[in-house]
Specification:
about 425 residues, Cytochrome p450, 6-stranded mixed beta sheet, 3-stranded antiparallel beta sheet, about 45% helix, globular, heme binding, Cyt_P450_sf
C-alpha cells in the first residue's frame, strides 16, 4: 500500500484520456540532438527550470516517457519497486513500437536480471554477487597493471597516442573478458566487445538489435564451454552456482555483467583522464598523485557520469511523482547525470567530490550488484594511475574545447582522447 501522506506516492485517479502533464502533451522535450550530446548539463538545468524534477520527454520516434531529473525523486523511484518496476512488459506504448526501434536492446523484455523482480531478481542478483565476490581484487589490479604495461609498450616510443582506441577500451575489454573466462585477445573477443557497443550505443548505419543477437550467440557458446570445463572465472561460478540457473539465464545475465564492466568503465577512465589533463586543480600533482586520481574518479561520477540516463522503470499503477501524474504503464527514464547535479543537494551550484552519495551506480534493489562498483574502481584506478606513472608528462594533443563527446544521450564518453608525451625508449 502507498502512504497517502507521501507527496511522491499518492495514488491518483484520472479521467478517460491522457491526464494533465502526460508526456504526449505539448512541451515534451525530445531526447535527441547535439545539445544532449555535447552540453547535456546545460540542457538538464533548462529542463529542471521549465518542467521541475520530472520532465515529459520523447524517445526515438516520438515515443512518450518521463525523465526523472531530481535526486530525491530518482532515489524514491529506485527504492520503491512496488510502484516503479523493471519488467518492461508493463509499458503502455508497445503497440507504437516498431520491430526495428533502436532502443529495443534497452527495453525489449529479456529473461535477465535486469528485468526480473522480487524473489526472482534476488535469486539472479545473488548469483552475480557470489560470482563477482570470487574475483580477487588484488589479482584483478595486478592483471590490469600487466595489460596496461603491455599496451603502453606498444605506443610509448611514438610520443603520441589516441587513448580511447589504443589504451582505455583494449585494457577494459581484456580485463573484463578474462574475468569472465574468455580469451583476452583475438578477433572473436574483439567482435564481442564491438557488438556490445553497437547494441548499447549504435552509430549511424549500425544495427543494435543484430549486434545484441550476436553477443547472445557468442555467450551461449561460452556457457557451453564452461559447463564442460569450468575454470576460476565469473562464468564458471555462475554455471556451478547452487541456484541452478539455466544456460539462457546465465547468458542474459552475462550480457549485463560484461556490458556494465567494459563500456561504462572505459568512459569513466577516459572522462577522468580528460579531467586530470584539463583541470588546473589536478595539474600540480597529477603525475603519480594517487589522492588526486581518486578525487578525480569520484568527481567524474558526480559531474560526467559514464551512464547519463538509464531506461528505465515502468509505473505499476497511477501515481504522482515530482508534481506529475504518472499513468500505469508509463516509462520513466532515470536521469542519473541530472540527479547527481541537482541544486537541491548542491546549494549554490557547488558539486563536491568528497563523498560517494552519487547515483552513478543507481540505487535500491536494482543498483549495480555488490561488489561490481568496487571491481570497476579497481580497473579504472589502475588504468589511470599506471598511464600517468609510465608517461608522467602526458598532455592533450588538442585544445580541450576541440574534444568531441559521443553522440549519445545514454552514455557520456569522448569520441577520442589524443595525447602526446616524451617518447620512451624501450
Amino acid at each position: 500500500m502507498t502512504d497517502p501522506a507521501d507527496p511522491f506516492a499518492q495514488q491518483t485517479r484520472t479521467a478517460d484520456g491522457p491526464p494533465p502533464g502526460c508526456p504526449a502533451h505539448a512541451g515534451a522535450v525530445s531526447l535527441t540532438g547535439l545539445d544532449f550530446q555535447q552540453t547535456p548539463s546545460e540542457l538538464y538545468r533548462t529542463m529542471r527550470r521549465e518542467h521541475g524534477p520530472v520532465a515529459p520527454v520523447l524517445l526515438d520516434g516520438g515515443i512518450p516517457a518521463w525523465l526523472v531529473l531530481g535526486y530525491t525523486e530518482l532515489s524514491y523511484v529506485t527504492s520503491h519497486d512496488e510502484l516503479f518496476a523493471r519488467d518492461s512488459r508493463r509499458w503502455n506504448q508497445w503497440e507504437n513500437i516498431p520491430s526495428d526501434w533502436p532502443l529495443l536492446p534497452y527495453v525489449g523484455y529479456q529473461p535477465s536480471v535486469l528485468f526480473a523482480e522480487g524473489d526472482e531478481h534476488r535469486r539472479r542478483a545473488g548469483v552475480i554477487t557470489d560470482a563477482l565476490e570470487g574475483v580477487d581484487q588484488f589479482e584483478l589490479a595486478n592483471e590490469c597493471l600487466l595489460i596496461a604495461d603491455d599496451l603502453i609498450r606498444g605506443f610509448a616510443g611514438s610520443g603520441q597516442v589516441e587513448l580511447m582506441s589504443d589504451y582505455v577500451h583494449p585494457l577494459l575489454m581484456r580485463a573484463v573478458v578474462q574475468m569472465c573466462g574468455m580469451p583476452a585477445t583475438g578477433d572473436d573477443t574483439r567482435q564481442l566487445v564491438d557488438d556490445l557497443r553497437i547494441s548499447l550505443d549504435a552509430a549511424e548505419g549500425e544495427d543494435p538489435v543484430a549486434g545484441y543477437n550476436r553477443v547472445g550467440e557468442r555467450l551461449r557458446q561460452l556457457v557451453k564451454e564452461k559447463r564442460m570445463a569450468p575454470g576460476p572465472d565469473v562464468t564458471s561460478r555462475m554455471v556451478m552456482h547452487p541456484a541452478g540457473l539455466s544456460d539462457e539465464e546465465i547468458v542474459q545475465d552475462l550480457i549485463s555483467v560484461i556490458s556494465a564492466g567494459e563500456q561504462p568503465t572505459s568512459n569513466w577512465v577516459c572522462n577522468t583522464l580528460r579531467l586530470l589533463l584539463t583541470d588546473e586543480r589536478f595539474a600540480v600533482n597529477v603525475s603519480g598523485g594517487r589522492l588526486s586520481v581518486g578525487e578525480a574518479l569520484n568527481e567524474v561520477l558526480w559531474l560526467d557520469t559514464p551512464t547519463q540516463n538509464f531506461i528505465g522503470r515502468w509505473a505499476v499503477r497511477d501515481v504522482q511523482l515530482g508534481g506529475r501524474q504518472i499513468r500505469e504503464g508509463d516509462c520513466l527514464v532515470l536521469g542519473l547525470a541530472a540527479a547527481n547535479t541537482d541544486p537541491q543537494i548542491w546549494p549554490e551550484g557547488h558539486v563536491g567530490a568528497e563523498n560517494a552519495a552519487h547515483l552513478s551506480f543507481s540505487n535500491g534493489e536494482h543498483r549495480c550488484p555488490y561488489p561490481a562498483p568496487l571491481l570497476a574502481d579497481v580497473m579504472a584506478r589502475t588504468a589511470v594511475e599506471t598511464l600517468l606513472e609510465r608517461l608522467p608528462d602526458l598532455v592533450l594533443s588538442v585544445e580541450p574545447e576541440e574534444l568531441v563527446w559521443r553522440p549519445s544521450i545514454w552514455m557520456r564518453g569522448l569520441m577520442e582522447l589524443p595525447v602526446q608525451f616524451t617518447p620512451v625508449v624501450q
